[in-house]
Structures are given as structure tokens and as C-alpha cells.
Recover the amino acids of this structure.
């Protein structure tokens, strides 16, 4: 028996005695795999207004709303995002998100920050002027964009610029918080005599941020597609699960799962 | 000779502490130390002075029959005795799964958020209360993760920085565990046999200290979260969340939202069976939430699956917890040797114990020598055998580093480790928030323990 063979034979015993605690870790859910190309093709065909059910599914107060309210808020928030997109570009006479960020005096950083869970973080805005674009996902996305079948669907796309544009809206929203629609629209959660609690709706801010970003980078489809595109770089399975959910929320039928060999 | 054995035992204790802190397998660690602590004290009787043996009747045994009786009590009776506690753990885990499957837990969280709206501090305070209430009945990594995937994204979407969201959620989970009947039965078994001291029930414990411990942790966590939030900047993130967490939107009827606290209320109020409470509330939840509308066979499969998932949730700890009674039992044979070495320095006064433990709270982190789900079981073995304290007082003394520090504030806790990965919070950022909370809460809880449980009568001593 060689030394390596002996080490290999003793390894399970050593692990059992001195190894780390065998705590059962959280297992992420499993979904059937689909090709990125098919998913992106389906998702880019969904009009921006039809994303309301998906967007509101992440809204903490969603249980209190009806579909007609959600649809109306979606339309108004999109209009708000577009309007501020045009307004900011005019105000600064600039059009690209990175130029605008510079002109606005934002502190933009591009950390790598690897993500590997069922919540993938793409970018963050921290008040008052700090924006972080997490490049790990962006780099993975860039590799996919080098493939002609993907770039033909997504077109000319600078993912980091899109993410930056989205986060810029949160700065703009803060700057115009007294007048902007996303902060003025409120719902009454409860009232008890003179006491009441009125709340803004967080989803409106996110919808407007997406519309703002779309306006700035002239994206021909809704930026929500990025959720699947960027998650795919980490987990094709979870991207497929997310795709299924988006399609169901948009009232469409998800494409059938594909054979493993067809999937990247 | 007893000094030599005492010193070797003490060294092995520090070795075990190092082993636990390094994150090695707890079950094997305690099994090895149990064997060592069996061999050394019993072998030591051959060489120890006659006066030492005479002063310690526990070390007096007659021939091989006496030796086998001791070994049987350590390796057979002790873990068997813990079986009654294990049954509670299994049923509690099943109930936790029922609350998740019926949507009661998630509905409770969502309804709470609908009261607070976009005001982060109000929502944090409300969510902390509800989370603590939920975890008076649920326990284990599975339920914490299931609630965490609802609570954490909500807090983050309100602009609460992720480290504060994590710290606040984990703190309120730990607060609830102070009244959790399963955890109570589990930790009680470290101190006494399940049939010993029948008056030391969850109801007695809750009324005398448990409510105070829960409230202290809940209020301290919430107040600290408010302070941290005031100092921090609001953040907005673009993140994608897979459907596991976000889309589980099963709505439970409003009247079923009371069910999570039914087993605890029945236990505390009527001293009703914990398992009975779990069964009643669990099946009520399944029927009232429409989860038992299938055929008899389908319903049986559902109940069985939930039981299976629940037991799997608790499985990682079972081996460790079934080894601990052996260790607890063997510690009494090692105690005479510890007394020789440490008798003069170990605190024998309740006030001194509270002060020393409050100062050393940080040693409950990283499975250190203060936490019962780490090397603290060995400390308990030493402390309880070299000095005399009432069981409820000793329970509180060790529950604080176990629940407040280890479960609520330490990154070695399985669900805290999950939360760090899920929220992308750096360990040091979490510890910067959780350690001050551990100290603030812990010190206040020791004050409460000294006032409420100090100086108990002879009936509370073994």
C-alpha cells in the first residue's frame, strides 16, 4: 500500500473524528434547466407594463392590493421614471449613466463581490451618494454577450451602465422626494380615530428606477430580463426557476425544459 | 495522585474547548472526552490517597460489578434518559414544518409588515415581536430559513442595511427560544434527569425568569437596531431572488394566526403536554388551512412528509445531544478531582457567578466554554460539581451564553451562517452589531437572574 493510498483510506476516519461539524446546510431549490437563449427570447417579448405582477410579488404590502391598482401604479411609475430620465438628461445635457453619475457627484465603485445564493445582488445605492456596481455578475454577463445568439436578442448592452442608471434613479428620487410621484403616492394601511398610518409603496420606486434606466440606456425591452440574465451566470437552475415565475406572472406559458446537453 | 489526575482532566477540558472553538465535530469530541473522563477518574482511584477516596463516596465502588454498574449508568442509562427529551424535539420540528407548509408563519409575517408599511423602525419592531412569538414554538435551521427568506428581503426592501436586518432577525429568533418548550426540555436535560424536580416546569421557569429573559432580549435587540438604523444610511438594492423564498405566498386564514403560540400557552397556563399541544395545534392548522382536503392516503403522506422534513431539520444535533448525557454523567466522577484543583478558585456565590459569567459572555461565541451547545457542557459539569447552586439559577446562568450569545449572536450557529451567505453580510460586520447586543442583553439577563432566581430554597437543589 502506498503512502497516498493509506492517506486516502484513513481520510474518512480522520474527517469523522476531527473534521468540521457535519451541519446540514441549507439546500437551494431545484428547477428544470432551460437554455439562456430561449429564456431571453421569451422574456424580451413581454411589454414593460405586463411585468406588474412579478414586480409587485416582491412588494411587502402586496397582499393589500388588487390587480387593477397594481396595473395603474405600474403605468404611472413607468411614466414617472421616463419623465425623470428625460428631465435629468436635459438638465445635465448628458445622456450616459456614467457621465451623469460623474456630473451629479456620485461616488461610484465597482467591487467584484461574488454572489452564490438564492438572492443575487447586482447593485446598491446608499444614501446620500454611494453607488456600488457588483462586477462579478457583470463580468459573467459579458461573456454570455460575446455569443452571437445572445447578443442578437439583447442587442448592444452595457450591463454596468444599466445597473448604474437604475441606482441613479434612487439618488434622483431622494433629491426630488417632495414632488416625485413614487414618494407622493401613498396608501392608508390602518386608521384608528385620529391615528393612521400612510405608507409609500416601495415597488413604485423600483418600477420607476427600471423605466428611468431603460430611458437612459435606450433599452428595447424591460430591464427585468436582467434578473434572469445575471442570475444565469451563477445558477442556470435558479435562473430557470425565476424565468418560470416571470412567465407565469405575465400570463404566459414557460417554454419546456430542455435536455441537459443543450444547456450551457 | 489526585492532583495529577485533576491537572490532566483540566488540560483535557481546555483541549476540548480548543477543539470546539476550531469547529470540529461536537459529537465525536464529547464522546472522546467522555471516555477519557471515565478512564482517568476511575483509574485514579487505584492511586489516589485513601482520605480522598473516603471523602468522595461517588468514587467508591466494589469490584468489577461496581465498575460495570458505573459504566452502564454512563453509557446506557444516561442517553436513554435523554430519549424523552428527543421525542419533544421531533414533535416540535413537525409542528414547525406544519406552520411553514400551511402558510401560517409567512402570513403572520406579511400581515405584520402591512401594519408597519414603509417605516423601517416600526416594521422592525413589529417583525421582532412576531418573529419572537413564532420561535416560541418553532425551532431548527429549516424554520429559521423559511421565515428568514420572507423577513430579510422585506427589511432590505425598506432600505434597512442588510447587516442590521440580519442582526435584528437573528436576535429576535433567539429571544423567542427563551420560551420554546422544546429548547427548554433540551437544556433542562443538561442539569437534571427528565423525571427529577417535577416543579421545574416551563410554566414555573417562564413566570420566574423566562418572560423577563425574552423581553430583555427583544427590547435590547430592537433598541439597538433603532440606534444602528439611526446612524446608518438607507440603502436600495437591485437584487434577484429565486422563487423559493419570494413566491411562497400561501395565505392562511386570519383566525389560524393564533395557532403558533397555542402549544406554549397550553404548557405555561395549564402545564398541558407539549406534544399534545403540538398535535392539537398542528392538526388544527392543517385542517383549518385546507391542507387536509385530499384523500386519506394523501393526507397521511402529507403528515408523514412534514414529520420527515422536521426530523431531518433537527438531525444534525441529535448525535451530539445523545452523547452529552454520557458526558454529563461522567462529569460527576471527574468532579472530586476538579474540586481538589479548582475548589478554591471556582465561584461559590451567586452574585460572583453572575458577574464572572457576564464578563466572560464572549466565551459563549465560537462554541466556547460557556455555551451548552459547545464546550459549555464541560464547564457546567465542573461548576455544578465543585459548587452548589439551585437548578433554575444554574439553568439561567448557562442559558444566557447559549441562547443570547451562541444562538442569537454567533456565526457558528447554522442559521446565522446561512443568513450571512444569504444577505451577503461580512462576518465581522454582523459580529460588530451582535456582540454589543450579546453583552447588553446578557448583562441585563444576569441581573434579572440574580434578582429573580437567586437564593432559592433547598427544594431547588439536587
Amino acid at each position: 500500500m502506498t503512502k497516498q493510498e493509506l492517506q486516502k483510506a484513513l481520510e474518512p476516519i480522520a474527517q469523522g473524528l476531527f473534521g468540521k461539524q457535519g451541519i446540514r446546510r441549507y439546500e437551494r431549490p431545484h428547477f428544470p434547466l432551460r437554455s439562456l437563449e430561449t429564456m431571453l427570447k421569451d422574456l424580451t417579448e413581454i411589454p414593460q407594463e405586463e411585468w406588474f405582477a412579478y414586480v409587485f410579488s416582491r412588494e411587502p404590502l402586496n397582499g393589500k392590493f388588487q390587480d387593477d391598482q397594481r396595473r395603474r401604479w405600474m403605468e404611472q411609475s413607468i411614466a414617472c421614471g421616463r419623465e425623470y430620465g428625460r428631465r435629468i438628461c436635459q438638465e445635465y445635457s448628458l445622456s450616459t449613466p456614467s457621465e451623469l453619475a460623474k456630473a451629479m457627484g456620485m461616488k461610484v465603485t465597482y467591487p467584484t463581490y461574488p454572489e452564490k445564493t438564492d438572492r443575487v445582488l447586482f447593485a446598491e445605492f446608499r444614501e446620500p451618494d454611494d453607488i456600488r456596481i457588483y462586477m462579478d455578475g457583470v463580468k459573467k454577463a459579458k461573456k454570455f454577450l460575446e455569443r452571437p445568439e445572445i447578443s442578437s436578442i439583447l442587442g448592444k448592452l452595457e450591463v454596468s451602465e444599466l445597473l448604474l442608471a437604475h441606482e441613479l434613479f434612487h439618488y434622483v428620487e431622494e433629491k426630488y422626494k417632495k414632488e416625485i410621484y413614487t414618494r407622493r403616492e401613498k396608501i392608508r394601511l390602518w386608521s384608528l380615530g385620529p391615528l393612521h398610518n400612510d405608507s409609500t409603496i416601495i415597488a413604485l420606486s423600483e418600477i420607476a428606477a427600471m423605466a428611468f434606466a431603460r430611458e437612459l440606456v435606450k433599452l428595447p425591452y424591460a430591464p427585468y430580463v436582467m434578473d434572469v440574465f445575471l442570475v444565469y451566470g451563477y445558477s442556470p437552475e435558479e435562473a430557470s426557476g425565476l424565468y418560470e415565475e416571470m412567465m407565469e406572472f405575465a400570463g404566459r406559458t414557460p417554454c419546456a425544459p430542455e435536455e441537459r446537453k443543450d444547456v450551457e | 495522585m489526585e492532583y495529577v489526575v485533576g491537572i490532566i482532566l483540566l488540560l483535557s477540558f481546555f483541549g476540548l474547548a480548543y477543539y470546539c472553538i476550531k469547529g470540529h465535530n461536537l459529537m465525536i469530541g464529547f464522546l472522546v472526552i467522555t471516555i477519557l473522563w471515565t478512564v482517568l477518574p476511575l483509574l485514579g482511584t487505584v492511586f489516589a490517597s485513601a482520605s480522598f477516596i473516603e471523602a468522595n463516596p461517588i468514587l467508591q465502588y466494589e469490584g468489577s460489578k461496581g465498575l460495570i454498574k458505573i459504566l452502564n449508568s454512563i453509557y446506557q442509562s444516561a442517553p436513554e434518559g435523554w430519549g424523552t427529551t428527543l421525542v419533544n424535539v421531533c414533535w416540535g420540528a413537525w409542528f414547525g414544518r406544519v406552520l411553514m407548509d400551511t402558510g401560517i408563519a409567512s402570513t403572520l409575517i406579511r400581515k405584520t409588515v402591512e401594519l408597519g408599511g414603509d417605516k423601517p423602525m416600526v416594521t422592525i419592531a413589529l417583525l421582532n415581536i412576531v418573529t419572537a412569538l413564532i420561535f416560541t414554538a418553532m425551532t431548527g435551521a429549516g424554520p429559521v430559513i423559511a421565515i428568514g427568506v420572507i423577513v430579510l428581503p422585506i427589511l432590505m426592501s425598506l432600505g434597512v442595511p442588510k447587516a442590521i436586518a440580519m442582526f435584528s432577525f437573528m436576535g429576535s429568533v433567539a429571544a423567542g427560544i427563551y420560551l420554546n418548550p422544546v429548547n427548554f426540555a433540551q437544556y433542562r436535560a443538561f442539569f437534571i434527569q427528565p423525571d427529577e424536580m417535577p416543579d421545574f416546569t416551563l410554566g414555573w421557569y417562564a413566570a420566574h425568569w423566562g418572560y423577563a429573559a425574552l423581553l430583555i432580549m427583544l427590547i435590547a435587540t430592537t433598541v439597538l437596531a433603532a440606534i444602528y438604523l439611526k446612524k446608518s444610511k438607507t440603502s436600495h438594492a437591485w437584487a434577484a431572488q429565486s422563487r423559493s423564498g419570494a413566491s411562497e405566498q400561501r395565505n392562511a386564514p386570519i383566525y389560524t394566526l393564533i395557532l403558533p403560540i397555542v402549544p406554549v400557552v397550553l404548557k405555561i397556563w395549564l402545564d398541558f403536554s407539549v406534544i399534545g399541544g403540538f398535535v392539537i395545534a398542528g392538526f388544527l392548522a392543517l385542517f383549518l388551512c385546507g391542507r387536509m382536503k385530499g384523500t386519506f392516503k394523501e393526507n397521511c403522506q402529507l403528515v408523514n412528509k412534514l414529520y420527515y422534513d422536521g426530523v431531518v431539520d433537527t438531525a444534525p444535533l441529535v448525535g451530539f445531544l445523545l452523547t452529552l448525557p454520557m458526558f454529563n454523567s461522567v462529569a460527576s466522577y471527574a468532579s472530586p478531582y476538579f474540586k481538589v484543583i479548582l475548589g478554591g478558585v471556582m465561584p461559590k456565590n451567586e452574585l460572583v457567578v453572575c458577574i464572572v459569567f457576564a464578563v466572560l459572555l464572549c466565551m459563549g461565541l465560537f462554541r466556547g466554554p460557556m455555551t451548552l451547545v459547545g464546550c459549555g457542557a464541560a464547564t457546567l459539569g465542573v461548576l455544578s460539581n465543585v459548587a452548589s447552586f439551585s437548578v433554575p439559577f444554574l439553568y439561567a446562568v448557562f442559558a444566557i451564553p447559549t441562547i443570547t450569545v451562541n444562538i442569537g449572536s454567533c456565526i457558528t450557529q447554522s442559521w446565522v451562517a446561512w443568513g450571512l451567505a444569504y444577505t451577503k453580510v461580512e462576518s465581522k460586520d454582523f459580529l460588530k452589531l451582535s456582540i454589543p447586543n450579546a453583552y447588553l442583553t446578557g448583562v441585563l439577563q444576569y441581573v434579572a437572574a440574580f434578582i429573580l432566581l437567586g437564593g432559592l430554597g433547598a427544594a431547588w437543589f439536587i
